Structure formats: structure tokens, C-alpha cells
UniProtKB/TrEMBL annotation:
Pfam families per record: Rep_fac-A_C (PF08646)
Domain named Replication factor A C-terminal: residues: 9-95
InterPro entries: DDIAS, NA-bd_OB-fold, Rep_factor-A_C
GO biological process: negative regulation of intrinsic apoptotic signaling pathway in response to DNA damage
Stated name of the protein: DDIAS protein
Domain of life of the organism encoding this protein: Eukaryota
Organism: Cnemophilus loriae (Loria's bird-of-paradise)
GO cellular component: cytoplasm; nucleus
Length: 130
């Protein structure tokens, strides 16, 4: 699945999701189900304490080259340079910010993050391995 079939130079038209970080299984990278104390992976059955859950980037984009539109999803640590930190650390920063600011509704921090990601990506040209 990780082998690149073709390189595609394209511009980002839009961001397709507002949740760029997800709790990921260390074994299979599937999304974990979290409750207040535990996590579990529906795909491989891995379980553990919620505080030990790992996080991973998942950025869904609509891109365009000179002829076509494409929906692509970029996963993992290749996004670290764009965010400036690992997904794990960004998740921790967001949680710390929400706690320090007394935010019970995380909508404002989510909105700020979406705006920053849109500014970073929309209208910019990248080379995608597809």
C-alpha cells in the first residue's frame, strides 16, 4: 500500500475534514475507539489505557492538476514538517490549551486550527505520491 505508483503535481483546492488528528492503533493504524479511561481497536482488538493512546495525522484534501480534480488523504508523519510537531504533540498542545483556557467547548480552538491549515495548504502546489 505504501508504494508510490505515480507522482502528481497538484494544487490544493479545499480541505475536506476539520479533524486532522485521530487516535491510532499502534499495530494497524486504524482509528481507536476511546472512552474516558480505555481505548480499543475494532480492527485488531488492541486495547489499553486512554492516556496511552497514540495519535496520527489524517488530512483529506481536494486537489487539482491541469486536467482533473482528485480527492486524496495524506496520513502520518509526512505531515510533521507542515504542522511543526508530531500529531501526538499537537494533540497534547490542543488539550493543554483547552484546559488552561477553561474551554469546555473546543469549537473555537478547532476553528482556529482549521483556519491555520487552510492558510497553509489551500492554493499551494505540492507533489503527491499516488
Amino acid at each position: 500500500m505504501n508504494s508510490v505508483q505515480r507522482l502528481l503535481a497538484a494544487s490544493v483546492i479545499s480541505i475536506q475534514n476539520s479533524c486532522f488528528i485521530y487516535p491510532a492503533c499502534q499495530n494497524c493504524f486504524s482509528r481507536l475507539i476511546l472512552d474516558s479511561r480505555r481505548f480499543s481497536c475494532l480492527k485488531c482488538g488492541c486495547t489499553g489505557e486512554a492516556k496511552d493512546a497514540s495519535y496520527r495525522y489524517r488530512l483529506s484534501l481536494k486537489i487539482a492538476d491541469t486536467n482533473d480534480l482528485f480527492d486524496v488523504t495524506v496520513f502520518g508523519s509526512c505531515l510533521d514538517p507542515f504542522f511543526g510537531v508530531t500529531a501526538e504533540n499537537l494533540q497534547r498542545y490542543i488539550q493543554d490549551f483547552n484546559q488552561l483556557s477553561g474551554e469546555t467547548n473546543t469549537e473555537s480552538s478547532t476553528r482556529a486550527l482549521v483556519q491555520a491549515v487552510e492558510t497553509c495548504f489551500i492554493g499551494k502546489r505540492f507533489i503527491f505520491g499516488v
